[in-house]
Task: inverse folding
C-alpha cells in the first residue's frame, strides 16, 4: 500500500509540475510584445487534440486553462499525499499485545502495592508492641531501682543509728569505769590525777573516733545518693543550649560528634569552620563543661558563665559567699527578663553543692 501511494503521488506531482511549467511558458508569451494575449498558441504534443476539440486557443485562454489544471493537479497531489492510511494489522496486534502487558503490569503493581501496605502495617504493629514492651520494662526497672535505693537508704540510716548507739554506749561504760576508779582511789591524789588524765585521754580518743566515724558515714551517704550530672561527654552537641540542628551538622562535618569532643576542640578552628564566632564557641564549651558537674542545670550554667566562670577548676576555686552574691544579682536579672521564675533562683546551699561537686 505505501508503494502504490508513493507512485500515485509521484505521477500526480509530475503532472502538476508540467502544467505549472506550461503556465510559466504561457506567461512568457503573454508579456512578449511581438505576440501578446491574442496570439494563437498551438501547444506541443496535445496541440492538434485541443485544436480539434475547442478550435484555436489564444495565449490568454491557454493561460487560464493551465492555471486551472495546475490547481486541480496540485489539489489531487495533496489529497493523495495526506490521505489517512488504513491501520497496519501488525501494528494493531502490537498495540493489543502492549495493552495486555500493561494491564498485567498494572495488576502486578496493584498486588505488590497491597503486599507492601500489609507489610508496612505489620511492621508498624510490631514496632508498636516492641516499644510498648520496652516502656513496660523501663517502668519496671525504674520501680525496682527506686525500691533498691530506698532499701539502701534505710539500711544506711540503720547502720548510722547503730553506730551512734554503740559509740554512746561505749562512752557511757568508759565514763562509769572512770568514776568507779576515781571512787576507789580517792585516798591517793596521784592515782586520782593519773586516772583523770587517762580518762580524759580515752574520752578524747573516743570523741575523735566518733567524729571520724561520722565523717566516713557522711561520705558513704554522699557516694550512695550522689546527684548525677545533667550532661555527659557522650551526649550529642545539640544537648547544649544554643546548638541547633544546623550547627550540629556543621560540628559533625568537622569531626565533633559529642560533648566531650566539643569541649576539647580548639575554638579558633570552630570559628573558621562553622557559623559561630570564637567567643560564642568558648561560651558553648564553658556551658557544656559546667553542665557536666552534678546538680548544674541549663540556667545554672548560663549564670555561672555570666559570672565569669568558664571551667570546673574555676568553679572549684570560688568562695561561696562571693559567688552566691554574683549568682543572686544575675538571677534577679534573669527573673526580670522572664528567663526563670522566682522559685528557680539558686539558694546558697545549691551554690555550695556546685562548688563541692566541682572539687571531686
Result:
Amino acid at each position: 500500500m505505501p508503494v502504490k501511494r508513493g507512485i500515485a503521488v509521484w505521477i500526480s506531482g509530475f503532472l502538476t509540475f508540467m502544467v505549472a511549467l506550461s503556465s510559466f511558458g504561457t506567461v512568457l508569451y503573454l508579456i512578449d510584445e511581438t505576440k501578446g494575449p491574442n496570439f494563437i498558441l498551438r501547444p506541443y504534443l496535445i496541440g492538434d487534440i485541443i485544436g480539434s476539440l475547442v478550435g484555436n486557443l489564444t495565449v490568454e485562454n491557454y493561460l487560464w486553462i493551465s492555471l486551472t489544471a495546475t490547481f486541480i493537479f496540485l489539489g489531487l497531489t495533496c489529497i493523495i499525499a495526506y490521505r489517512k492510511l488504513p491501520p497496519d494489522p501488525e501494528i494493531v496486534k502490537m498495540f493489543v499485545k502492549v495493552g495486555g502487558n500493561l494491564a498485567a503490569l498494572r495488576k502486578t503493581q496493584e498486588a505488590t502495592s497491597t503486599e507492601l501496605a500489609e507489610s508496612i502495617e505489620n511492621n508498624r504493629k510490631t514496632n508498636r508492641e516492641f516499644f510498648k514492651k520496652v516502656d513496660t520494662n523501663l517502668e519496671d526497672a525504674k520501680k525496682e531501682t527506686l525500691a533498691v535505693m530506698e532499701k539502701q537508704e534505710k539500711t544506711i540510716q540503720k547502720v548510722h543509728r547503730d553506730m551512734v548507739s554503740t559509740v554512746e554506749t561505749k562512752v557511757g561504760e568508759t565514763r562509769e569505769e572512770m568514776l568507779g576508779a576515781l571512787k576507789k582511789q580517792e585516798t591517793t591524789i596521784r592515782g586520782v590525777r593519773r586516772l583523770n588524765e587517762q580518762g580524759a585521754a580515752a574520752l578524747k580518743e573516743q570523741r575523735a573516733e566518733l567524729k571520724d566515724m561520722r565523717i566516713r558515714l557522711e561520705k558513704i551517704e554522699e557516694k550512695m545518693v550522689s546527684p548525677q550530672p545533667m550532661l555527659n561527654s557522650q551526649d550529642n552537641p545539640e544537648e547544649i543550649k544554643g546548638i541547633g540542628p544546623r550547627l550540629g551538622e556543621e560540628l559533625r562535618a568537622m569531626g565533633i560528634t559529642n560533648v566531650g569532643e566539643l569541649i576539647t576542640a580548639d575554638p579558633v578552628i570552630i570559628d573558621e569552620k562553622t557559623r559561630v564566632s570564637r567567643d560564642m564557641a568558648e561560651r558553648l564549651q564553658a556551658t557544656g563543661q559546667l553542665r557536666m558537674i552534678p546538680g548544674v542545670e541549663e540556667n545554672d550554667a548560663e549564670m555561672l558563665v555570666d559570672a565569669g566562670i568558664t571551667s570546673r577548676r574555676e568553679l572549684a576555686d570560688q568562695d561561696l559567699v562571693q559567688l552566691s552574691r554574683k549568682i543572686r544579682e544575675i538571677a534577679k536579672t534573669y527573673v526580670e527578663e522572664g528567663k526563670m521564675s522566682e522559685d528557680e533562683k539558686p539558694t546558697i546551699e545549691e551554690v555550695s553543692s556546685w562548688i563541692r561537686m566541682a572539687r571531686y
